[in-house]
C-alpha cells in the first residue's frame, strides 16, 4: 500500500534542502539525507530491507527488479567497503554496475564536477551513487541531473551518510525492536562525522529514548544539542544505562590539526575497552561503521566480542541499500510500490 | 577633509554624454522639476526645481542668473525623490585581472542602475593596485565607461603580500582615497603595526577587514547550528573578534584612522562600540546582505548565500541593525563580488564566496526604512554622507549649490521584484532574486550627466 506523503510547504526563498528528494507525486526519487524523510519513510525502507536481507540467504542471491538498469558508482573519494556494498546491492537487483573511481581521475585533470556528471549521464545511467569529500555535493548533483536519474548519497563531506545510518537503525531494530525505551551513545569524532549526523536524524526520527554523544570538546561541533543529543565528555557518565554504543572511526589525519594530543590519550579516555563496556547495560550492543582502528577507538576483544554486531552491520548494509535502490528506482519508473 | 583628487577625478572626463547629445541641447545642463529633494545632512526636504550645469548643482528653487533656459534638458520628476548619489565604500569591479567575471564598464553601469554614483574599489586587482599606474588605468577605464565614478583604494603592502610596505604616500598623492590590504593577512603583527604607524604619518585612511586566516581556514559558513547540521566547516566569530581586538590595540598606540568595511557579528560590534567610546579613530561598515540574511539562508545550500564573512545568527543580524540605527555602524556597503556562473556551480564549500550587490544596496537599505528598522535620515547618512566624509569626497554625498551633481532620482511608490537575469551587472549571483522592493531608481546623474534612465 502506498504511503501518503504530505508534501511540506516550501518557503519561497529558503527551499528545504531535503525536499528535492521527492518527486511531484511524493515518491522517493533521491536519497541525499535522512532529514525530511520522516518516520514513515524510514520505517518503509527498513521494512523493505527485511525482505531483501532474506534474498542474500538464498542460493541464487538475485532478484530481477533493476534488470536493464544502469547504476554508476561515482566515488570522488576512495572507499572500499561502501562502494563494494553498493555494487553488490545493485548486482543483486540485477542492475548493470559501473564503478568510477574519480578521486584520481577527471576532476584532478581540471574537469568540473558538472562536466563529469554530464558525460556519465550521456552514457544513459539511471542511478548515481555518489561519494564526495564536500558537504552538499550530493544535493548539488541531484539538482543538476536529468529527470530520469536518481542520486543516492554514499557520503558527502561531514554532512550525511544516509544508508549507513539506515543500516545502523536496521541492525538496532533487529536486536532491540522498539526504539522508544533505548539509550544510544555515539562516541568519538562527532565533529567530522557524516555518519554521526545521519544517525542523529534517523534515531530521533524513530523516537529513540535518549541519544548521547561522548567526546572531548574539540570533537564536538558547535550547538550540536540542537540536533537532539545530550553531550558528555566523560565515558563513565555517558555510557551509564546505555543500550547501544556506536563507536566512530578516529581519523588519524584529524589529530594533526591539534584536535587531540595523541591516540594513546584518546584510547585511554574514550577507547571502548572491556572495562568501559561494563559501564553500559549488560546487554549493550557495540556498533562501528568501520573500518575500526583497533587499539585506537576500540579494543580487539570488544570488536570481536559477543556484544559486537560490527560484521552484521556490513551484511545488513547490502539489504538496506537494495531497499533504497529499489524504492528510488520505482519512483522513477512512475510505479507506486 | 581633503579635497577630492583632481588628477584622477572625472572632472576632466573626455567622454561625451554616454547617451549622446540631442541637437541644440546642452546635455550638461538639466532642470529637474518638482522632485522632492531629500538630503538630511543639510536639513533639505523640499519639493523644488533643481538646476545642474557644468557638472555641479547650480541652483535649487531658482535658476542661476546666467541660466540659458532654452538649451537645458528638462525632466519632470513630480512624485519622485531626489537623493544624493550613493557612495558604495567596498565593491569589486573585477578589472583588471578578472575580466571573465565582470569589467569596470559592466559594473559601473550596474552601479548607476542601482543609484550608486561613486564606487570605491579595494586594491585586490591583478596587477595589485600598489602603484599609481594601476590606479590611473582603473580611472581611465571608468572614464571610458562613462557611468559611475570609480575611486581606488591603494594597497597597504606590495603585492598585498603583507611583507613589504607599499608606497602609500605616493598612492595618496596619486588620488587613492584610502589604503587597505583587502582580505589578505599581514605576515605578522609587527609589520601590521608598522604599516599602521606609517599610514598615520600621512593621516591616511586605512581600511582593514579583520579575519584571522588560521581561525577561518576552510570555513565557509557561520560556526553554529546550521553549519553543524549541514556538516559545513565553520567560521567562528572569534575569527573576526580576535584580530579586531588586536587591531584596536594597535590603533590606540599608532593613532591610525581605521575603517572596518564589514562587521558580521554582535561581538565585533561590541568591540567597536567600546573603541569608539574610548575615542579611538575607528569607524565601521556593514554589508547590505548581513542586514537581511542569517545562517538560516545557507540552510538550502544555495551558493549565492556563500559569503565571507559568513551570514551569522539572527541575534547577530539584529545587533547589526541596531548598530546601524544608532549610528554606531557608520556605512552600508554592497561588498559587490560579481561571479561568472561557473564560480557558483559546485558543491557549496567549493563555490567562490560573494554576492553581486550593486543593484540591491539602495533597495535593501530603503527596505529597512520601510520596515522601521532605521529612519530615512540614517539611510542617507550611511549611504552618502558618512562615506563621503570617510573617503574625503568633500564635494559629493550631499545636495547643495556648488556640490558635484551626483544625484539619484527614485520612485518611492514603484513596486518591483528582483529578477537576477535582468540585472545590469555581469554577475547574477544574488540571494535576493524574487524579493519584492519598493523605491526604484529611475534616473542617475554623475557629474551632471545623466548616466542612467530606467526604460519604461
TrEMBL record, chain A:
Residues reported to bind carbamoyl phosphate: 81-82, 131, 161, 164, 290-291
Keyword list, A-Z: Pyrimidine biosynthesis, Transferase
Residues holding L-aspartate: 109, 194, 249
Domain Aspartate/ornithine carbamoyltransferase Asp/Orn-binding span(s) in chain numbering: 182-327
Catalysed transformations (reactions): carbamoyl phosphate + L-aspartate = N-carbamoyl-L-aspartate + phosphate + H(+)
Pathway, per record: Pyrimidine metabolism; UMP biosynthesis via de novo pathway; (S)-dihydroorotate from bicarbonate: step 2/3
Entries under PROSITE patterns matching the protein: CARBAMOYLTRANSFERASE (PS00097)
Matching HAMAP family: Asp_carb_tr
Job of this protein: Catalyzes the condensation of carbamoyl phosphate and aspartate to form carbamoyl aspartate and inorganic phosphate, the committed step in the de novo pyrimidine nucleotide biosynthesis pathway.
Quaternary structure, from the entry: Heterododecamer (2C3:3R2) of six catalytic PyrB chains organized as two trimers (C3), and six regulatory PyrI chains organized as three dimers (R2).
UniProt-recorded name of the protein: Aspartate carbamoyltransferase
TrEMBL record, chain B:
Protein keywords: Hydrolase, Pyrimidine biosynthesis, Zinc
Pfam families listed in its UniProt record: Amidohydro_3, DHOase
Protein name: Dihydroorotase
Domain annotation Dihydroorotase catalytic: ranges: 80-265
Domain Amidohydrolase: 371-452
Record flagged with keyword Zinc: yes
InterPro entries, sorted: Amidohydro_3 (IPR013108), DHOase (IPR004722), DHOase/Allantoinase_Hydrolase (IPR050138), DHOase_cat (IPR024403), Metal-dep_hydrolase_composite (IPR011059), Metal_Hydrolase (IPR032466)
Gene3D superfamilies per UniProt: Metal-dependent hydrolases, Urease, subunit C, domain 1
Keyword Zinc: yes
Record-listed E.C. numbers: 3.5.2.3
Entry-linked CDD domains: DHOase_IIa
Gene Ontology terms, MF aspect: dihydroorotase activity
Taxonomic path: Bacteria, Pseudomonadati, Pseudomonadota, Gammaproteobacteria, Chromatiales
Amino acid at each position: 500500500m502506498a504511503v501518503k506523503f504530505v508534501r511540506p510547504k516550501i518557503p519561497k526563498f529558503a527551499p528545504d534542502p531535503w525536499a528535492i528528494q521527492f518527486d511531484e507525486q511524493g515518491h522517493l526519487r533521491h536519497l541525499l539525507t535522512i532529514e525530511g524523510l520522516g518516520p514513515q519513510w524510514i520505517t518503509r525502507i527498513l521494512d523493505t530491507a527485511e525482505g531483501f536481507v532474506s534474498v542474500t540467504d538464498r542460493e541464487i542471491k538475485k532478484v530481477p527488479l533493476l534488470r536493464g538498469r544502469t547504476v554508476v558508482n561515482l566515488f570522488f573519494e576512495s572507499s572500499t567497503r561502501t562502494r563494494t556494498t553498493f555494487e553488490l546491492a545493485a548486482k543483486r537487483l540485477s542492475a548493470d554496475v559501473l564503478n568510477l573511481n574519480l578521486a584520481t581521475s577527471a576532476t584532478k585533470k581540471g574537469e568540473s564536477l558538472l562536466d563529469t556528471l554530464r558525460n556519465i549521464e550521456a552514457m544513459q545511467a539511471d542511478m548515481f551513487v555518489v561519494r564526495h569529500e564536500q558537504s552538499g555535493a550530493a544535493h548539488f548533483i541531484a539538482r543538476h541531473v536529468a529527470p530520469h536519474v536518481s542520486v543516492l548519497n554514499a557520503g558527502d563531506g561531514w554532512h550525511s551518510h544516509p544508508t549507513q545510518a539506515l543500516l545502523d537503525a536496521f541492525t538496532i531494530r533487529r536486536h532491540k525492536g522498539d526504539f522508544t525505551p533505548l539509550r544510544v551513545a555515539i562516541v568519538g569524532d562527532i565533529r567530522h562525522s557524516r555518519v554521526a549526523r545521519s544517525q542523529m536524524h534517523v534515531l530521533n526520527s524513530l523516537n529513540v529514548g535518549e541519544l548521547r554523544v561522548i567526546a572531548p570538546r574539540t570533537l564536538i561541533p558547535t550547538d550540536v544539542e540542537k540536533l537532539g543529543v545530550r553531550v558528555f565528555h566523560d565515558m563513565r557518565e555517558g555510557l551509564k544505562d546505555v543500550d547501544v554504543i556506536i563507536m566512530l572511526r578516529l581519523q588519524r589525519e584529524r589529530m594533526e590539526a591539534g584536535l587531540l594530543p595523541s591516540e594513546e590519550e584518546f584510547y585511554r579516555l574514550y577507547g571502548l575497552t572491556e572495562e568501559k563496556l561494563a559501564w553500559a547495560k549488560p546487554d549493550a550492543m557495540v556498533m562501528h561503521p568501520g573500518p575500526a582502528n583497533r587499539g585506537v577507538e576500540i579494543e580487539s576483544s570488544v570488536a570481536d566480542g559477543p556484544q559486537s554486531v560490527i560484521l552484521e552491520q556490513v551484511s545488513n548494509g547490502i539489504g538496506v541499500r537494495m531497499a533504497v535502490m529499489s524504492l528510488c528506482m520505482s519512483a522513477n519508473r512512475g510505479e507506486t510500490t | 577633509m581633503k579635497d577630492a583628487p583632481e588628477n584622477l577625478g572625472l572632472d576632466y572626463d573626455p567622454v561625451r554624454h554616454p547617451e549622446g547629445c540631442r541637437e541644440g541641447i546642452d546635455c550638461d545642463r538639466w532642470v529637474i522639476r518638482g522632485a522632492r529633494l531629500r538630503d538630511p545632512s543639510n536639513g533639505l526636504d523640499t519639493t523644488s526645481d533643481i538646476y545642474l550645469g557644468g557638472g555641479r548643482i547650480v541652483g535649487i528653487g531658482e535658476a542661476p542668473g546666467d541660466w540659458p533656459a532654452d538649451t537645458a534638458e528638462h525632466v519632470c520628476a513630480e512624485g519622485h525623490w531626489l537623493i544624493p548619489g550613493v557612495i558604495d565604500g567596498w565593491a569589486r569591479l573585477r578589472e583588471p585581472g578578472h575580466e571573465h567575471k565582470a569589467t569596470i564598464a559592466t559594473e559601473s553601469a550596474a552601479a548607476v542602475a542601482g543609484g550608486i554614483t561613486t564606487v570605491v574599489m579595494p586594491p585586490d586587482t591583478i596587477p595589485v593596485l600598489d602603484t599609481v599606474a594601476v590606479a590611473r588605468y582603473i580611472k581611465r577605464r571608468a572614464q571610458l565607461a562613462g557611468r559611475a565614478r570609480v575611486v581606488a583604494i591603494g594597497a597597504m603592502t606590495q603585492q598585498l603580500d603583507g611583507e613589504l610596505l607599499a608606497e602609500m604616500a605616493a598612492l595618496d598623492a596619486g588620488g587613492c582615497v584610502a589604503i587597505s590590504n583587502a582580505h589578505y593577512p599581514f605576515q605578522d603583527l609587527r609589520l601590521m603595526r608598522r604599516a599602521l604607524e606609517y599610514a598615520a604619518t600621512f593621516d591616511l585612511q586605512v581600511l582593514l577587514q579583520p579575519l584571522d586566516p588560521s581561525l577561518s581556514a576552510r570555513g565557509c559558513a557561520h560556526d553554529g547550528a546550521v553549519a553543524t547540521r549541514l556538516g559545513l566547516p565553520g567560521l567562528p566569530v572569534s575569527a573576526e573578534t580576535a584580530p579586531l581586538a588586536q587591531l584596536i590595540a594597535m590603533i590606540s598606540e599608532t593613532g591610525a584612522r581605521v575603517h572596518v568595511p564589514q562587521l558580521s557579528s554582535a561581538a565585533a560590534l561590541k568591540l567597536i562600540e567600546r573603541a569608539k567610546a574610548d575615542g579611538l579613530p575607528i569607524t565601521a561598515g556593514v554589508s547590505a546582505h548581513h542586514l537581511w540574511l542569517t545562517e538560516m539562508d545557507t540552510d538550502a545550500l544555495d551558493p549565492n548565500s556563500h559569503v565571507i564573512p559568513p551570514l551569522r545568527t539572527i541575534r547577530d543580524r539584529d545587533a547589526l541593525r541596531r548598530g546601524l540605527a544608532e549610528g554606531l555602524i557608520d556605512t552600508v556597503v554592497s561588498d559587490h563580488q560579481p561571479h561568472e556562473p561557473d564560480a557558483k556551480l559546485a558543491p557549496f564549500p567549493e563555490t567562490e564566496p560573494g554576492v553581486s550587490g550593486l543593484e540591491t544596496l539602495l533597495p535593501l537599505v530603503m527596505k529597512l526604512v520601510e520596515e522601521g528598522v532605521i529612519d530615512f535620515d540614517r539611510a542617507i547618512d550611511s549611504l552618502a554622507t558618512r562615506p563621503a566624509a570617510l573617503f574625503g569626497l568633500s564635494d559629493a554625498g550631499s545636495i547643495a549649490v556648488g556640490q558635484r551633481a551626483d544625484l539619484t532620482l527614485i520612485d518611492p511608490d514603484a513596486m518591483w521584484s528582483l529578477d537576477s537575469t535582468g540585472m545590469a551587472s555581469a554577475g547574477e549571483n544574488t540571494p535576493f532574486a524574487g524579493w519584492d522592493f519598493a523605491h526604484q531608481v529611475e534616473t542617475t546623474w554623475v557629474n551632471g550627466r545623466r548616466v542612467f534612465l530606467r526604460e519604461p
